[in-house]
Structure formats: C-alpha cells, structure tokens
Amino acid sequence: MKAILLLLSLGLIAGAAEAQLPGLRKYTPTDNAQRAALVPPAAPLGGIDATRADFAAQTGGTTVYFGVGSAILAPPATLVLSAQAAWFRRHPEVVARVEGYADSGDTRDHALAMGARRAEEARDYLLLLGVPARQVSITSWGKERPGLGRAVTVLVR
Amino acid sequence: MKRLFQGFLLIAGASVAQAQEPQTAAGIVIAVPPLTSPDSGTKGNQMLQVGWEATQVIVADLSHTREFAPLRTSRDDYYSYPEVTAPSFGKWRSAGAKVLVTGFVQGRSDGRLTFGCYVYDVEKGRELARKGFVLTPGEWRRAAHKCSGLAYSAVVGVPGGFDSRIAYVAETGTGDARLRRIAVMDSDGFNHRYLTAGGTMVLTPRLSPKANRLAYVSFLDGKPSIRLLDLGSGQERALVPQDAISFAPRYSPDGSRIVFSMMVGSNCDIYIVGADGGAPQRLTTSPGVDTDPSFSPDGTKIVFESDRGGQQQLYVMNADGSGERRITFGNGAYASPVWSPDGQWLAFTRHGPEGRRVGIVKPDGTGELLLTDGPADEGPSWAPNSRDILFQRAGPGRSSLFHVALAGGAARQMTIPQDGSDPDWSGVMD
C-alpha cells in the first residue's frame, strides 16, 4: 500500500513538472541554454576556499563553544582544537585567526574582553599542542554579531 | 537669590513626578521676548532677524528642561536697546513671569556678532546674571545655547549645558550586514553629521570635554582598537601603536589624558596615556577583566568595573592606580560606570537574570537607585547638568537612544535620523 502511494506521488510530481502552471512560462531547451550562458559553471574549489573546506572536514569544525560568562575550554572544545592543532602542524604555511564572540546579554566593553579571552584561550591550547605562535592570531567581536559565546578559527591565507 | 528659587524647584519636581507629559505647565515661568539690536537700517533689520531666530532657540532650550516653563514668545514684544538693561518689569509681572531674559545682537566691524544676554528676577526687579559672547554669524545657534545656559545656571545653580554635543553610533541594516557610523550632533539635534564612512565596524564614541576631539573603537585592522579623531581638522590616528586589542576610551576632565582598556594575552587591564601621545602606563594588575574606566570631575579618582571577584562590580581607585576599593556588593553584575559632572553620582548598567537596567549609586557605594526598567538598557552618559542620563535601549535587532531624569519619571526616546547606540554627551564647549 505504501509502495503504491509512493509511486502515485512520484507520478504526481512528474506530472506537475510537465504541467503548464498559471503565470509561469514553461522551460524549453533554449531557455536552459541561455541560462547556462548567463550562469558560469561552479568552479572547483581552489586556493583558500579549498584549504578552508579541507580544514573544516578534517578537524570536525571551525568553532568551539563556551558556557555563559566562561572562557574555560570544555572537553568537546579541546577535542576540536586538538584536531585543529594536528591539521596546522601538517600545514605550517597556513595562517589563521581565532575570532572570539561573547554572550549577547553582556555589556559592550566587557563583551569585547570576554571575546578576546575566549579567542586567546583557544589559541593558547593550539600553541600548547605545538602550533607555532606566528601561525595564529586573535581578534574579538564582543557581542557585536549574533550567536552563542564561541571561538571560531578562520584561515586567513 | 538661590533660596527664593528652591521653592519653585520643589514645585517643578513634584509636578514632573505626577505628570510625565513634558508640555504641562510645570516649572518656573520665564519670559524671553525677542532679542533686540542697537544697529539701525538694513543691518539693524538683519540683526533683529538673527535675534528673533536666536530667541526661538532659547525658548526651545528652556522648554525642554524640567525646571522652566517659557511664556509664548511673540515678535510684538519688541523692546528698544536701552530697555535691555532697564526692562519694564510690571509688564512681565502681570504676565505671570518670574524670570526674564533680555538681550541684543550687534554686528561688529570684523564681521562677527556680539550677543548680549541678561537674566532678571521679575518680582524683585533685580539682575541675576549678564554675559556677552562674540561669535561668527554661522555660530548664532551656539550663542543662543550659551544664553539659555546663562539663564539656567543663574536660576538653577548648575550649568545648563545647552552648548554641548552628543556623539553616538548610527545603525542601519540588519544582522552581520548592519552598517555602523559614528555620528555627532548638537545636543538639541541640530548640525547632525556622520564622521565615519560605514565600511568598518565602529563602537563607543567618546567626546573630549570641549567636544573638539573624539576617541572611538574601530575594527579597521580586523581587531578592535582605539582611534582618535580631531573634529576640526579631520585628522585621525591610532591611540596605541602596538598591534593590541584596545577599547573603552575616556578623556580626563581636562582633556589631556585618555584612560582605556588593553588586552595583553588574556589579561584585560586599565591603562592611561597622554591625549597627544606617549607611552601608556598600566593602572590595574588584577588577572580579571578591568574595563570601562571613568574619571571623577576633579581628575583625582577613576571608577571602573572588574570581574576579579567572579562577577563584574564597580571599583574606585586614585588616578595613579593606587588605593583600589570595591564599592558595589549587590546581586547581579555592575558595569559601565560613568562619574557625573557634578561628582555626586556614578551611573552604571546592572545586569542579571531580569536583563540590563541603568541606575545610579554614590561614589561611596550608598544610595543605589535603578532608573530604567530594561530589559536591554546600557551605556549611560550624563547630561552636562548632571540631572539627565542618556542611554541605549535595545529591542529585537535594533536599538535607540533614550534619556531619563534623576528626578524620576519614564524614559523618553530621543529623536535621531536612524537607530542608535553608545551615546556620549560632551561637556560645555568653549
């Protein structure tokens, strides 16, 4: 019974694709050719984009999170940072910046300091695991961008 | 003389507390007939026109205070130049005025204008104050503000601060794409202009006491750092040359020094440096976050916040960093303290489970009072008369500037061309 329903619905979708919907022009092969000319095909990832994708895939994430009001790394965060450190040791040519974010309920200037402390904490852990200091810098966004309290490792070049 | 007006002030204060409508007839009745001129002919007519426009600015200034209720001003109340110093008190007495402001505008041979301003006690028929100001024709609004300030200080006993500026962060757009520019305007909202272009995130503009310089935080180099801007020349430079994260700048009362926070590693301490340069000196050494320093008006002390005890609390130290003393012990966190221009109060942001609210406490830690309801108020800044506090109130994704009176009553929104945050009110300009 379920299989029949599934087939039926697939048929419906196929039918809908063929139907001329009111207010919409039906696509023709010419249209598609024109669109293809307008939109260049997606280039394969290269340069910093490819490096960033590789970094994110190999390390399990660019971001570590903190408890409210805290700049202390919890075990999930150290796991991610250990993987990041291993990756940086394999790619000594890559330069990165750890960006710290504070809690949205904080006051403006304390938030800047908390963001910096979180970024510094994450950077210190990377350095502890053998990443050269010149390879990683920090900045703080305080509470100026929405989201949870976190430190994000951004590859610069 | 002051004693005579204290009675009026009590009445005015009571009325404001009962009725929050600013236009109700509360306050001392003051008459401001149109300023006259000793000049004659075409020049005389020009001066009378300037005088009339200045008169309207004075009336507007005084009507925005909680202490004064200006009479309706008409050009029919013209008086001659000799009457500036010999006004017809009987006329104003029967009109119900307690205070009278007279004055004149005179063209000078060098093209500038002389403004004369006189304040009288109508019932006693006695002069309370007089002052002359020489300004360029383009600065006639400032002359009017100075005349308002003369009347205010002669009657209320504290500076009016009408000739001052307000800087803030103008905000447009949403989310990460929100555009922020430093804006500055006269304290009555006129001469509004943007000082930064908007491509770079900016925070916390802080005017020098005379409002001719500005310190602010810019993300120009990718990290927050303090920059100084000269409003006259437009010249700009970084406060500290190092590649450091620095923020929370504030001028000393004489404008010669700047206190601020700087990160060294994960340690955030308070430093001081000359406004014209030099090597920063470290003032605090605790391992916690020490930030938001603000000078006492006599320049001898600095209030700041520190989370060294776990939660942010207010501390006072001597201006050389010695004699640190914690002054708040309440529940919740106490942040962003600012010393009032009269030295009597510290304004602060208190945050806890109920959100962020603005309040005041005496420098010895007593007399704590919350002035706003929150839930997302912060960044207090004092009016030059120490009777009003300007602050930022955030809503979902936006924020606006509000002000609240120490005397009580609801906070009122300030009219600005777009959203705004981080207000900063200067002292009175020269």
Properties at a glance:
heterodimer, A: 157 residues, alpha+beta, 4 strands, globular, B: 430 residues, mainly beta, four-stranded antiparallel sheet, 4 helices, 29 strands, 15% helix, disordered N terminus
Protein model, in words:
The complex is a heterodimer of chains A (157) and B (430). With 157 residues, chain A is α+β, with helices and mostly antiparallel strands. Chain A is 49% helix and 14% strand. Chain A is built from five helices and four strands; from the N terminus they run αααβαβαββ. Chain A has a four-stranded mixed beta sheet with strand order 1-4-2-3. In chain A, β2 (96-101), α5 (108-128) and β3 (136-142) form a beta-alpha-beta unit. In chain A, α4 crosses α5 (108-128). The termini of chain A are far apart. Chain B has 430 residues and is mostly beta strands. Chain B has helices at residues 2-18, 41-63, 89-94, 140-156; strands at residues 28-31, 68-70, 99-107, 113-121, 126-135, 165-172, 179-186, 193-194, 202-207, 213-218, 225-230, 236-238, 246-251, 257-264, 267-274, 277-282, 290-295, 301-306, 313-318, 325-326, 333-339, 346-352, 355-361, 369-370, 377-382, 388-395, 398-405, 412-413, 419-425. The longest helix of chain B is centred in the first third of the chain and has 23 residues, at 41-63. Chain B starts with a helix and ends in a 5-residue tail after the last strand. Chains A and B meet through α5 and β3 of A and β21 of B.
Quick structural gist:
The complex is a heterodimer of chains A (157) and B (430). Chain A has 157 residues and is α+β, with helices and mostly antiparallel strands. Chain A contains five helices and four strands.
Largest contact between chains = A-B, 23 and 33 residues
Instruction: Give me the count of strands of chain A.
Output: 4
Biggest sheet layout of chain B: 5 strands, mixed
Which range does the strand content of chain A fall in? 5-15%
As laid out across the biggest beta sheet of chain A, the strand order is 1-4-2-3
Low-confidence stretches of chain B: 1-25
What is the percentage of strand-forming residues of chain B? 35-45%
Instruction: Determine the fraction of residues in helical runs of chain B and give it as a percent range.
Output: 10-25%
Fraction of helical residues of chain A: 40-55%
Helical segment count of chain A: 5
Rg over C-alpha atoms of chain B, rounded to the nearest angstrom: 23 Å
Overall mean pLDDT of chain A stands at: 81
Task: Please give the alpha-carbon distance between the first and last residues of chain B.
Answer: 27 Å
End-to-end Cα distance of chain A, whole Å, is 56 Å
Number of helices of chain B: 4
Mean pLDDT of chain B, nearest integer? Answer: 91
- The coarse overall form of chain B would be globular
Summing up helix and strand content along with how strands pair, one would put the structural category of chain A as: alpha+beta
Q: Give the oligomeric state of the chains in this entry, treating copies of one chain as homo and distinct chains as hetero.
A: heterodimer
| Secondary-structure element string of chain A | HHHEHEHEE
What is the 3D form of chain A?
globular
